[in-house]
Amino acid sequence: MDGSLIGTKDIQTTKSPSSGIATTTPSENTAMSTFVPMAKSSTLGAATLGVSEDMHFDGFKDIVNVDLSGVVIQQMIDKTQSLNGLSWQVMDARYMELDDESFDAVLDKGMIDTLLSGDNSVESANKFCSHVARILKPGGIYMCLSSGIPNERMTMLSNQDYSWEVHYFPVPKPVISEVEPKFNPTEEPTSCYWLYTCKTGGDDEEG
Known about the structure:
The chain is an alpha/beta fold. The protein is 26% helix and 28% strand.
């Protein structure tokens, strides 16, 4: 799973999930609509994954996309020029030049996994999370789809410096062969992906 991140603005409703393993298992395509319907969005990293286009057709009409590669950004500008509401910027997700408290939501599809597999992994991931927390509005939500199990990811995501509340859900892996992948998150947490939702406090919180 390559790294990609999406940030959203102008959310009308945001729902906070229960803690621990949820009884529902939202897919990567429905997760954004489930938690942040009617939002403005931004993608950071691996912009060719098609996530932003899918979100556009699902009703998200203001999407900011960021990738470290200028070549990738130009490719996506050319590919999506007919889609209104998508913008593309060359940017390092660890040093995001985006305004404070300017996004209602951020969707990360494997970005933190990518950072944790590189040099200075923990430092890079912490810088990334710090910027995500900075650009989120009060009541905003960071959604992280990761292959990392809760025992590994919760240690980093639960950092009090980020001022958000973290919950997680198991997400079945896609079927890519005739044999359906095993899905047993309780006994075999690596049998699935994990969706972590990190919601900041603030006036926008629902009661």
